[in-house]
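queue> pop job 88
queue> type: inverse folding (structure -> sequence)
queue> payload:
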């Protein structure tokens, strides 16, 4: 019997060593342009996606690598190409050689100088893993706490953030690799945002398989007694190209990208973008699980069993979609079976209390992790056992473990445990069922008043996590601890009251809704329709072959509304987080109340004289002069009189002049002025309007007031908010308001003592890109005031419509083109711009060129620069430097604003037309990349003289002032000096002349860069800035393209815009339509209920979206809705805004009809004839119509808006009657 017990104990102990120490692994791979088929990319130099990794981006041998295009890895040099060190060859079908050369071997004073280049043979189907996280000194304390037996690190003779000592490096590498178990551990392969599927996704999983072999740690060849390890760990895997022979798979992203759009539509009824979305496995499909995000980081990291289970289930859903699509071949059903097999294996490896050690840490047990490890390793606690029982036995002394480092602490631990109440112990045991950290456990453990609620509904842990500014805990993480599954929990399955019998349990459903409402905030939605939420839950339940009962959400609405808001209106039913319901209510109340009221003491200023004298070339007889002056005078009176004012208008309409004039008022200066803007560049720009007043970023102001949390980089409302409100100025001016989120506005207003503030002035352009985050506050406010029937509210908004600089210079083609991408009807002759484009008769401020495909883009861009940049007699490098003001560095130090004379913009970062690739071209053409003077900030090399952009808000010490200076995200500068030996660069920024700021090299691919190249920047980053000359590279496709994005790009240029458009310009017209508005697709309930019922729909948005009865037709104004609806009801066929060409000329009428003979009939609706500029544009267009044969009353019909935009319905009916007679 004793022998049997001993054998059983030994078997259990061995089994636990295998299971508990076993880990899964994540491996980062670079994007491949040919399906990761075991060869070098087809065209390495045209694969920019992999260059988000610094070891690839900084490879000096791009041309040489191109020689190996498409070759097998066994045919290339041992150190080539650069992606060899980044898992570019993980699907290699043949063995190949790889040579390792130590980073410090060049240093003859370092022991590493004695390490020889070491060549090893790499087996087929091998990937490499470097545990960067654990080799970093940042994790030394964590490792020492968990593994005190590791060798202590040695001091390095130079500054480094990495482990230096050879023995400690070997200890870490051996430990890390020992936990990867062949045929048990799974490997998940992922790309970062460098991919063509979705560059905003952060991480995208490209495949997974089993680890089949883990090789020993490689040591460098040397004659020294001290052996240094190669950090790269070599592991083999089971993924194969032939799915019939593969244990694992690569998702067919590349195959889907290569499919013909028409074929996909015919086969599935869906677009290519939709089907790719359905097979995409990114963090979004994993509920943006932050724990998994961390585990898919550092290039190589452990994955827990819980995370692996979530990933496997999500992967199964993707493969089921692949099978359903039927677009590609392969035995995908075999992979479904493989996934099911792995799910079963992983469940066997999970215990019922995965956070046991974290719970011990939460109550002050320092050696928690080692205690659990000892209990497992010595056979006192099997994988499916309850470690709490074993822990109690350890404290009582009924089990003994020899030679433990915490022996002297056990009496203290017993005292701690004995002092804890039974209720608290029950909560600790419950919390340890979820894979959460000690901080989260500590939070709930200390909330004794919440114990009963927590036991009744553990999903409140997930629901509360979104408000606690801590790691988000997903519903699925709670599922694994409260849904009974003996395969996971053994005999320790959850019990009542926290047991969940069904995944349709109302507690779980509410948690899913809460999680979804929180996740869509990042997409801009502040609420969701019940239909969209039901669809989301149905998709979630379908994985388990479950469905949501009819009207179930409304059936359990009383329970749901304990924590969420249910909005029931005539337009529909929606759910909203209470926090955002309160935010929108608060903003609505403040905006409405202040907009309807006037200040008690207005300003006594002669605004008319001041405005007319400030407009350069003002001419009383010029319609545009008078119109611009009237707008600006009205704006200044509004500023003076209203408690809330909104000023809108595109660049060049005089906003700067108005603000400067307003701030010239001595009364305003005496009352005090606070100037705020969302970005550093906008802050500088606003400050320049103010005659010496300092402007602040909103983050700076909120930080100063105690309303900003820098840990999460978000505004928040402190508990003592009412005691610390701002009373430093009575006038608040905020610029670039379209960039502000719900929370930005909410925190800003909460931080102000509104009783003290006389005037709040909000300035912006409602047609620009919406904020990155929740809501579309400024756009909603603009439309609410602009469309209000109350005169008091309408008087709180002024739209500037006349571009001041065109008064003398004439029409601007930039602004004519941009007007088509606003939410309003362009001027009547604005369609003339398309004729100019068609005939290539553009004015001097706009040039348009076309590139056919990505392979010719570089050549075409160079051709455009040669043609457009000044100093045509000089070489291109000098012309680029001269254009950005860096031909004279000394002058640029004194006047850094010169670097904003010329700017390149692109919608995206990674593709061939993205900023990363464009920046590399400019670096090459400028000649900078041939210098040895550079610093490395992953993934780029920044050379002396390079144009750069700051990427975070921070304070740095300037030289020579030695003062900490605020640097803002989006602030542009240039590399003034490089200390190559010490890897230090010094940067000068716009707005801060004669000061340099020091930056050190950083090679981490995981840390967010603080600085990057800025010859080209994204359109998003350009928002809030303007430049003399702008070159925009526009692709014709891309998920990010929208009406607002193109409008923002077009309006960045002050003097000259150069468009480099893919294929042709005709597709641009599609993005002028309301359907292309990303702003309109956002759900909002600020002033009017505006919620889509389906993710693919566009909700009604007053001032933005005007739906008609005709299917899929959205027009630009209320009046056009009436016309379109009457035409549709009378059965008259018509086209809306269809370009027509007559006599070699083209135009875009409002409505186009066709008579019985096939001749065209035009209907134009005139909306603003009271505006002189609009009236002038109509008269010009009318003359144009006559010139091509259109006569009023015969084949040209017009109707007009009357006072306050009212339309005469009888006039419309009479026109339709006439048309019916003709038709």
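queue> result:
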């Amino acid at each position: 019997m004793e022998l049997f017990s001993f054998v059983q104990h030994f078997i259990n102990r061995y089994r636990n060593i295998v299971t508990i120490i076993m880990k899964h692994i994540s491996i980062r791979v670079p994007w491949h342009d040919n399906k990761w088929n075991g060869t070098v990319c087809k065209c390495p130099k045209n694969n920019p996606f992999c260059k988000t990794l610094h070891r690839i981006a900084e490879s000096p041998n791009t041309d040489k690598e191109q020689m190996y295009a498409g070759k097998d890895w066994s045919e290339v040099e041992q150190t080539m190409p650069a992606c060899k060190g980044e898992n570019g060859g993980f699907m290699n079908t043949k063995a190949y050689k790889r040579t390792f050369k130590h980073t410090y071997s060049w240093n003859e004073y370092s022991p590493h100088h004695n390490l020889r280049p070491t060549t090893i043979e790499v087996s087929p189907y091998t990937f490499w893993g470097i545990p960067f996280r654990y080799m970093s000194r940042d994790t030394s304390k964590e490792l020492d706490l968990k593994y005190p037996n590791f060798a202590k690190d040695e001091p390095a003779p130079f500054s480094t953030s990495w482990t230096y000592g050879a023995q400690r490096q070997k200890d870490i590498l051996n430990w890390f690799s020992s936990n990867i178990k062949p045929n048990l551990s799974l490997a998940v392969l992922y790309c970062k945002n460098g991919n063509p599927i979705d560059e905003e996704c952060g991480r995208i999983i490209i495949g997974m398989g089993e680890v089949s072999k883990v090789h020993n740690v490689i040591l460098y060849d040397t004659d020294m007694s001290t052996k240094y390890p190669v950090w790269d760990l070599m592991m083999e895997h089971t993924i194969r190209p032939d799915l019939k022979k593969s244990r694992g798979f690569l998702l067919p992203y590349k195959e889907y990208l290569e499919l013909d759009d028409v074929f996909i539509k015919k086969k599935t009824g869906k677009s290519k973008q939709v089907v790719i979305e359905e097979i995409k496995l990114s963090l979004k499909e994993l509920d943006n699980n932050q724990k998994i995000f961390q585990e898919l980081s550092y290039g190589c990291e452990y994955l827990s069993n819980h995370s692996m289970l979530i990933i496997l289930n999500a992967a199964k859903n993707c493969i089921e979609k692949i099978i359903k699509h039927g677009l590609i071949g392969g035995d995908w059903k075999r992979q479904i079976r493989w996934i099911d097999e792995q799910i079963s294996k992983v469940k066997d490896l999970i215990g019922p209390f995965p956070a046991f050690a974290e719970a011990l840490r939460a109550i002050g047990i320092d050696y928690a992790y080692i205690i659990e490890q000892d209990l497992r390793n010595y056979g006192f606690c099997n994988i499916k056992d309850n470690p709490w029982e074993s822990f109690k036995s350890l404290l009582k002394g009924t089990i003994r473990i020899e030679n433990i480092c915490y022996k002297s602490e056990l009496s203290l631990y017993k005292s701690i445990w004995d002092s804890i109440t039974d209720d608290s112990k029950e909560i600790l045991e419950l919390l340890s069922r979820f894979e959460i950290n000690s901080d989260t456990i500590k939070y709930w453990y200390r909330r004794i008043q919440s114990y009963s609620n927590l036991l009744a509904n553990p999903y409140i842990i997930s629901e509360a996590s979104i408000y606690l500014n801590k790691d988000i805990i997903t519903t699925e993480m709670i599922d694994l601890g409260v849904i009974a599954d003996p395969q996971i929990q053994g005999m320790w399955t959850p019990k009542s009251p926290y047991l969940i019998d069904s995944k349709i349990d109302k507690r779980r459903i509410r948690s899913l809704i809460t999680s979804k409402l929180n996740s869509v905030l990042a997409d801009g939605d502040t609420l969701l329709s019940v239909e969209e939420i039901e669809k989301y839950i149905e998709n979630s339940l379908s994985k388990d072959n479950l469905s949501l009962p009819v009207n179930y959400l409304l059936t359990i609405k009383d329970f749901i509304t304990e924590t969420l808001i249910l909005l029931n209106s005539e337009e529909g039913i929606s759910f909203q987080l209470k926090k955002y319901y309160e935010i929108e209510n608060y903003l609505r109340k403040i905006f409405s109340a202040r907009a309807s009221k006037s200040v008690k003491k207005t300003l006594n200023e002669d605004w008319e004289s001041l405005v007319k004298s400030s407009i350069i070339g003002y001419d009383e007889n010029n319609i545009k002069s008078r119109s611009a002056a009237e707008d600006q005078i009205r704006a200044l009176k509004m500023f003076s009189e209203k408690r809330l004012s909104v000023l809108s208008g595109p660049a060049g309409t005089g906003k700067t002049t108005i603000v400067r004039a307003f701030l010239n008022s001595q009364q305003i200066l005496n009352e005090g002025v606070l100037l705020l803007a969302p970005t550093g560049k906008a802050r500088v720009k606003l400050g320049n309007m103010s005659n010496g007043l300092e402007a602040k970023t909103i983050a700076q102001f909120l930080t100063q007031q105690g309303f900003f949390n820098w840990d999460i980089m978000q505004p928040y409302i402190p508990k003592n908010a009412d005691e610390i409100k701002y009373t430093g100025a009575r006038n608040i001016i905020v610029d670039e308001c379209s960039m502000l989120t719900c929370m930005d506005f909410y925190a800003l207003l909460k931080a102000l003592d509104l009783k003290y503030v006389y005037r709040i002035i909000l300035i912006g352009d409602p047609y620009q890109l919406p904020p990155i985050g929740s809501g579309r506050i400024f756009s909603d406010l603009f439309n609410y005031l602009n469309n209000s029937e109350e005169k008091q509210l309408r008087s709180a908004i002024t739209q500037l419509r006349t571009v001041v600089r065109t008064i003398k210079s004439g029409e601007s083609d930039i602004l004519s083109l941009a007007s088509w991408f606003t939410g309003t009807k362009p001027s009547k002759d604005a369609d003339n711009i398309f004729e100019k484009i068609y005939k290539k008769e553009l004015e001097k401020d706009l040039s348009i060129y076309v590139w056919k495909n990505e392979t010719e883009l570089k050549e075409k861009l160079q051709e455009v620069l040669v043609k457009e940049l000044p100093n045509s007699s000089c070489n291109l490098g000098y012309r680029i430097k001269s254009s950005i003001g860096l031909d004279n560095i000394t002058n640029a130090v004194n006047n850094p604003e010169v670097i904003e004379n010329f700017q390149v913009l692109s919608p995206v970062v990674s593709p061939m037309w993205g900023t990363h690739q464009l920046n590399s071209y400019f670096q090459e053409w400028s000649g900078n990349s041939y210098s040895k003077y550079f610093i490395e900030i992953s993934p780029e090399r920044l050379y002396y003289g390079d144009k750069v952009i700051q990427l975070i808000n921070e304070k740095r010490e300037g030289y020579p002032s030695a003062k900490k200076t605020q640097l803002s995200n989006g602030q542009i500068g240039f590399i003034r000096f490089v200390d190559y030996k010490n890897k230090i660069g010094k940067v000068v920024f716009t707005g801060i002349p004669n000061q340099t700021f020091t930056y050190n090299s950083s090679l981490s691919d995981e840390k967010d860069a603080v600085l990057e190249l800025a010859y080209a920047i994204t359109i998003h980053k350009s928002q809030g800035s303007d430049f003399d000359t702008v070159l925009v590279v526009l692709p014709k496709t891309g998920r990010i393209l929208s009406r607002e994005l193109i409008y923002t790009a077009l309006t960045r240029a002050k003097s000259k815009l150069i468009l480099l458009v893919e294929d042709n310009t005709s597709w641009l017209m599609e993005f002028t339509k309301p359907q292309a508005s990303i702003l309109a697709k956002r759900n909002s309930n600020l002033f009017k209920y505006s919620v889509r019922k389906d993710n693919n729909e566009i909700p009604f948005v007053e001032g933005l979206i005007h739906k008609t009865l005709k299917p899929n037709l959205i027009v630009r104004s209320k009046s056009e809705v009436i016309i379109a609806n009457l035409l549709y009801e009378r059965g008259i066929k018509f086209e809306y805004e269809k370009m027509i060409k007559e006599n070699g000329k083209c135009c875009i009428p409002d409505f186009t009809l066709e008579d019985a003979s096939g001749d065209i009939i035009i209907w134009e609706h005139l909306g603003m004839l009271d505006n002189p500029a609009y009236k002038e544009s109509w008269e010009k267009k009318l003359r144009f119509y006559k010139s091509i044969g259109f006569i009023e009353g015969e084949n040209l019909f017009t109707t007009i808006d009357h006072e306050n935009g009212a339309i005469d319905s009888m006039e419309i009916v009479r026109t339709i009657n006439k048309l019916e007679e003709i038709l």
